[in-house]
Amino acid sequence: QVQLVQSGGGLVQPGGSLRLSCVASSSFFRSAILDWYRQAPGEQRALVATISSGGSSTNYADSLKGRFAVSRDNAKNTAYLQMNDLKPEDTAVYYCSLSAYNIWGQGTQVTVSS
């Protein structure tokens, strides 16, 4: 079973940046589409971004286009979510996922606050 281990969350001021990482335990990762989700308090989990297995195709939630960027380095079995110009409404727990296989990272808290 592939495991996903996340890192990179934390507290940041509005306008700041963070990069989340998601490391897979197996090269199976390289053949799978990867998604990033987030869940804010009291809300349902929402899709943030998707990247194809090879990394050539990406999609974003409309409200995040231009601020967030998803990427992956298959040689390192790692995906990234670069988040720029962060806003308080971006505060949430962020998850990476190989959704088609119901494999999830443990989640990482991102808090945007002054």
Describe the protein in words:
The chain is an all-beta fold and 114 residues long. 0% of the residues lie in helices and 48% in strands. The strands form 2 sheets. Strands 2, 4, 5, 6, 9, 10 and 11 form a 7-stranded mixed beta sheet that branches. It has a 4-stranded antiparallel beta sheet with strand order 1-3-8-7, with no helix packed on it. A hairpin with a 4-residue loop joins strand 9 (92-98) and strand 10 (103-104). It starts with a strand and ends with a strand. The mean pLDDT is 96.
Summing up helix and strand content along with how strands pair, one would put the structural category as: mainly beta
Largest sheet: 7 strands, mixed
Q: Percent of residues in helical segments? A: under 10%
Give the integer mean of the pLDDT values: 96
Q: What is the N-to-C order of secondary-structure elements (H for helix, E for strand)?
A: EEEEEEEEEEE
The number of helical elements comes to 0
Termini separation: 40 Å
Could you tell me the radius of gyration in angstroms?
A: 13 Å
Indicate the proportion of strand residues.
over 45%
